[in-house]
């Protein structure tokens, strides 16, 4: 019997799930439901006629680890190998990263030599914190905040400045609320298994997933890539996925189709998906929308599941792209982050032209920057996201460039993107919430799988990899590494 899978959400998670479903030789009817008029979610690029490219979401992807290899393999299979723009580890954008502390830019120490020297804004060499870490007792709590973990093991200064800034750069979040166990699981496990982050990083072994290597992944290792993008911007990745899905003819893509409600069919083994102008039936649903959005359409009987999903909140980030005439940067590097003690609303500035000069305009020199603002502090600093004016955000961003980088010139081009609820916050206890969701799905044998950034990783790599794992589980490909949020048996596994 033909099985129908409905994928709700046309961001990178939903597109990746459809991609892996259609690669299967098992017979599927796949439907992709997206509420907006475009696919790709937060991967969104502006391409100007003069060749300039500006990112309004993620701007680079790391090739490291299984998740990195998985994405590169998909990029190869989509025929995008020649479109990849690599940034190697010896590139100045990889080596130079800055913090804005005390009204000044400070280059972060890098390499062994950097760790041995005392450099501002730190009161001691980083090696002293590393040596101290080896002597700290193992933690006993099931979870704790990122700030508390780092303060306990590496000292208050690193927690207040470096980790605070890092969490703002990655999660746009408050390290005093974010979960160490969920946000940085390798470091959390290193302490649990070896009693030390340092020892865990040196002696710990990561189980490798087979079948993820590709020619592109091998090239990234040989050339020492630190990150990569695409010639036409990151939006080119979901566009290639959409093109691939349409060419297969195996996926029905429904855009501007908002799910109103999910209902179980008689017997509870399938779903009826209520839409504004009708309904469709599916044997299984893969939800690739934010947890909060899914909670609002689940049937009343799934109250405990909806409750856990609503616990997973997200923050809003203002992304302001600016272009300046000529070369205006006083330093070269990837960009700089700003700790919350320096400015609560200003997260950091990315020097886009340094990492990806290929995205600069073709007719003369200019400098592209991206200013990130808000996050966990958005409402406190800017007010209600529904009411904030773009002009206010633009002025705040341009002033930050003047103050932080000493740039007197006015931007010659700008774009303000207000990304509402774009980054989930894995607060302390997030792991427990995930476990309760997993238990509910298993105990009720719900034909439902959850993918996306709300659950187990916010990066593009994490989302793509979770979609791949979920589809493998759905197809009955049981592997030890699979750790998904989904039905307890595969779609083609007979009910017991």
Structure write-up:
The structure is a single chain. Strand 11 (271-275) and strand 12 (278-282) form a beta hairpin. The longest helix is centred in the N-terminal third of the chain and has 16 residues, at 156-171. The strands form five sheets. The protein has a seven-stranded mixed β-sheet. The protein starts with a strand and ends in a 22-residue tail after the last helix. It is built from 19 helices and 19 strands. With 496 residues, it is α/β, with parallel strands linked by helices. It is globular.
Briefly characterize the structure.
The protein contains 19 helices and 19 strands.
Topology diagram in text:
Elements (H helix, E strand, L loop, with lengths): L2 E6 L3 H11 L5 E6 L11 E3 L5 E3 L9 H13 L6 E5 L3 H4 L2 E4 L2 E4 L3 H6 L9 H8 L12 H9 L1 H16 L8 H4 L1 H10 L2 H7 L11 H9 L1 E6 L5 H13 L2 E4 L4 E6 L6 E5 L2 E5 L1 E4 L3 H5 L7 H8 L3 E12 L9 E3 L8 E5 L1 H4 L10 E10 L2 H5 L7 H16 L7 E12 L5 H14 L4 E3 L9 H15 L22
Parallel strand pairs: 1-2, 1-13, 2-9, 6-15, 13-19
Antiparallel strand pairs: 3-4, 5-8, 6-7, 10-11, 11-12, 14-17, 14-18, 15-16, 16-17
């Amino acid at each position: 019997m033909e099985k129908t899978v409905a994928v709700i959400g046309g961001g990178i998670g939903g597109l990746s799930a459809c991609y892996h479903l259609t690669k299967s030789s098992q017979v599927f009817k796949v439907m992709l439901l997206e509420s907006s008029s475009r696919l790709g979610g937060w991967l969104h690029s502006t391409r100007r006629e003069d060749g300039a490219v500006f990112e309004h979401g993620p701007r680079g992807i790391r090739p490291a680890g299984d998740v990195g290899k998985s994405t590169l393999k998909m990029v190869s299979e989509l025929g995008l190998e020649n479109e990849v723009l690599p940034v190697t580890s010896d590139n100045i954008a990889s080596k130079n990263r800055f913090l804005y502390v005390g009204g000044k830019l400070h280059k972060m120490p890098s390499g062994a030599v950097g760790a041995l020297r005392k450099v501002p804004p730190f009161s001691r060499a980083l090696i002293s914190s590393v040596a101290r870490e080896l002597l700290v007792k193992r933690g006993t709590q099931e979870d704790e905040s990122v700030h508390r973990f780092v303060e306990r093991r590496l000292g208050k200064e690193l927690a207040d400045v470096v980790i605070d800034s890092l969490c703002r750069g990655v999660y746009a979040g408050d390290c005093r609320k974010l979960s160490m166990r969920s946000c940085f699981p390798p470091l959390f496990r290193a302490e649990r298994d070896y009693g030390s982050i340092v020892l865990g990083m040196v002696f710990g072994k990561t189980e490798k997933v087979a079948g993820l290597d590709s020619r592109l992944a091998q090239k990234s290792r040989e050339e020492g890539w630190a990150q990569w993008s695409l010639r036409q911007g990151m939006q080119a990745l979901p566009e290639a996925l959409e093109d691939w899905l349409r060419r297969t003819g195996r996926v029905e893509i429904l855009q501007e189709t908002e799910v109103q409600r999910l209902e179980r069919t008689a017997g509870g083994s399938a779903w009826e998906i209520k839409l504004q102008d009708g309904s469709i039936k599916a044997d299984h649903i893969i939800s690739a929308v934010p947890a909060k959005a899914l909670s609002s359409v689940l049937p009343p009987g799934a109250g405990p599941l909806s409750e856990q999903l609503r616990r997973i909140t997200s923050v809003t980030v203002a992304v302001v792209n600016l272009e300046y005439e000529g070369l205006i940067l006083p330093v070269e590097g990837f960009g700089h982050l700003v700790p919350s003690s320096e400015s609560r609303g200003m997260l950091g500035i990315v020097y886009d032209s340094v990492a990806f000069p290929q995205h600069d305009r073709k007719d003369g020199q200019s400098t592209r920057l991206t200013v990130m603002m808000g996050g966990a502090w958005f409402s406190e600093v800017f007010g209600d996201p529904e009411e904030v004016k773009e002009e206010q955000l633009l002025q705040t961003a341009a002033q930050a460039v003047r103050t932080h980088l000493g740039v007197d010139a006015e931007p010659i081009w700008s774009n303000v993107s207000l990304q509402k609820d774009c980054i989930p916050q894995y607060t302390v206890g997030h792991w427990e919430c995930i476990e309760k969701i997993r238990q509910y799905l298993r105990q009720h044998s719900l034909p439902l799988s959850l993918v996306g950034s709300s659950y187990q990783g916010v990066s593009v790599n994490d989302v793509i990899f979770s979609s791949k794992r979920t589809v493998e589980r759905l197809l009955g490909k049981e592997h030890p590494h699979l750790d998904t949020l989904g039905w307890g048996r595969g779609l083609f596994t007979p009910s017991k």
